[in-house]
Amino acid sequence: MSQDLTRMRILSVAREKFARSGFYGTSMDSIVRAAGLSKGAVYWHFKNKEALFVAVVESEVKRIQEYFFPKMEDREKGLLAFFIGSGERCLEILFEDKDLRLLWMDLLLQAQRTRGGRNYFSVFIRNKIDEVSNALISESLKVFPELNADNDSTCFKNLLRIGDYFFIGMMSNLEITLTLEEAKKYWRQMMNLLFGGDNAHVQKM
User: Fold this and answer.
1) Which CATH class is domain 1-47?
2) What does the pLDDT look like over 43-66, one tens digit per residue?
3) pTM of the entire predicted model
4) Lower CB density within 10 Å: C or N end of the chain?
5) Cβ contacts of residue 142 below 8 Å, gap of 6+?
6) Which residues contact 126 (CB under 8 A, 6 or more apart)?
7) 106-164, pLDDT tens digit by residue?
8) Which residues have C-beta within 8 Å of that of residue 47, sequence separation ≥ 6?
9) Are the beta carbons of 201 and 190 closer than 8 angstroms?
10) Domain ranges across the chain
């Protein structure tokens, strides 16, 4: 088995284990056994359980962010329609893939397990949000030139953060207090508040 295939095998097994049992309920030994590999092979790719968990989450971030990164062909849709459609598609994916939801929730839970400072996971979340937000701003400014006219990237970044926090809240409640259709409806309402009309909130915030 090639190194790439071995790494993919480890990530696939770890994804299922972490989703079902959580970070603290999953041991590296259980991943080694389920993957059918040697302990040395697993540790060659990932130095510890934290690194493996983050690698699993990273792969999911890359998959999801593709829906939120606009392409030039999205210009005709307009900013509002693009973000509404992207958010709705991501909600559908999260609704269909419960393991993905559980991974995100466990990551947030681990980030909260600290006192008087940040831990490995809280630092990862903050850095990843900054990285993705900056990349999204850059791509959005290329595709939607109206954002360049009267606005600065800091303002747009603040709006994206509001959207992020709102989205995470809905994700946390899918199939608990929210149906998929309710989540989509609230997402459309929030996007209209943030980006509706003449982008008034972008200009005035």
Assistant:
1) mainly alpha
2) 999 999 999 999 999 999 998 888
3) 0.85
4) N
5) 72
6) 118
7) 999 999 887 666 788 999 998 998 898 889 888 988 998 877 655 555 677 788 889 88
8) none
9) no
10) 1-47, 57-204
